[in-house]
Recover the amino acids of this structure.
């Protein structure tokens, strides 16, 4: 199974019950496809960067889940058909997680190879050096 993130934007005039219904529908599609829902974030009503279907705001919902590609195709098909969904985006993040894990292992291996050295003592503070200025003329005292 692969790890995905699904972000979709619902119309701002949708009722809370309708949004919950869409969230539950997506959750049930993931579970019925043999997947596991890791996280559901409801970001709430936010301003869009540009107008989408004559809307300036949208209700954002983010899913993070593990599933098969076939289940993702079905989720995207249902979101595309839904009138309440303005936009959606599916991103496969397991490749990114693999890359981060590989980098972490390389860093740990490099740290294990290098011997730990004691930090050098800080240098002693130097005495301020006085810079001679122009000689002052001798003045006569009256």
């Amino acid at each position: 199974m692969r790890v995905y993130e699904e972000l979709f934007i619902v119309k701002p005039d949708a009722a809370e019950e309708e949004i919950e219904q869409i969230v539950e529908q997506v959750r049930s599609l993931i579970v019925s496809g043999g997947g596991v829902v890791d996280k559901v974030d409801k970001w709430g009503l936010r301003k869009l960067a540009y107008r989408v279907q004559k809307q300036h705001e949208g209700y954002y919902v983010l899913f993070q889940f593990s599933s098969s590609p076939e289940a993702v195709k079905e989720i995207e098909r249902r979101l595309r058909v839904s009138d309440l969904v303005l936009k959606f985006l599916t991103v496969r993040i397991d490749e990114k997680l693999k890359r981060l894990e590989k980098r972490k292992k390389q860093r740990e291996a490099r740290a294990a190879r290098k011997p730990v050295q004691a930090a050098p003592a800080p240098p002693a503070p130097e005495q301020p050096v006085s810079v001679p200025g122009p000689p002052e003329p001798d003045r006569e005292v009256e």
